[in-house]
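Entries read chain and fold; for instance:
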Amino acid sequence: MPVSPYWQIRQVVTIDGSRYVDRCNLFGGRGSLKVWSAFDCLVSWIAEHRHGIQKHNYVDDDFGFARLGDVEWYAPYERYFPSPQARLLRLWDELGVPHEPQKQLHGLTLPIIGFQVDPNAMTVTLPPEGRTRLLLAIDEFCELTPGNRRRSLAAFQAFAGYANWAFNVYPLLKPSLSNVYEKMGGKSNRRAGIYVNAAIGRDLLWLRRHILSATGVHFLTANAWAPADLDPRALGDEFALTDASGYGLGIYFPWLRLGLHCTLPDRAPADTIFFFEALAVCAVLHHVRAWQSAGRFVKRLAILCDNSNTVAIFNSLRASPVYNAILTSAVNVMLDAPMDIRVQHIAGELNTVADALSRGKLALARSLVPGITLLPLTPLPDVLGARI
């Protein structure tokens, strides 16, 4: 795409002492991406609204679906293509959009922005070579020597961007960058060295370990659902309410009429505002996972909590390092079980039973729920000091 002469002067490059002007739009900045996006969105609008071609696009990657056997002959390439793809190629010819035969892919699986998409198995995964490159990037970032334990801010930013791209396939592994972001915070000199500490090494080792065993995103098990969608009669569904006070932790399973309680652990980090609220949510996952030994496998778990900060870190899977051990412990359970969770907010005045349990008011809890079973809650060692 040609750009204004006033912008072309910014795209002068020197090769072997000679000056060259690139007169076309170059990727590499926000402005160039906006120019391309405006053009590509117009082409996509024409394809969908004027020619009835249903497709998706991401930057310069267009893709879609067709039934097996639904093909049309595309004369310029002398081959058959899925019908939507052949019609899109003809539209590009009409509009003068250049394209190359080696980039027009189709099949039962398809590479899209570096991921392998299988519409029949409903999965998105990293191909073996992509996973190998990601693991190599982790190893290279963590390859330190006694005299070289620093990486530039630019290297930190590049690695974080690469990892975030991979999180499209491994969304639960976002906590692995908590200490990376903490080190990058407030810095602007891209050449300045940043110390790679032991916490970053542990987080990235955790990331590497899970990438080796992860299978990618399964669309059929990644459907949107809310606590209201759970069925109390289904063994694969469960929900709990949690609370924490200055005295202890409380967990309440209404469908089971089961309450768990304990006093505050004495090994928690200092200067944490909602650490115990988040710890209670994490404890629910560990307790439910333990039911597997009795033959019950919960697949969908909803947890209601009256602390908005706790809800936020579990929904974003991003927290400051002091809370990050809670998130990594929770993710370990979700991947091992496997289990899909939703953490939502509940007003404090509606969370009476969990509140009573957290304050050690067991008689009050029994009066609120006659026949409730009360059991002691065991704190989580991997969150309270032991390495994960």
The longest helix spans residues 30-49. The first strand starts at residue 12 and ends at 15. Residues 258 and 373 are 5 Å apart (CA to CA).
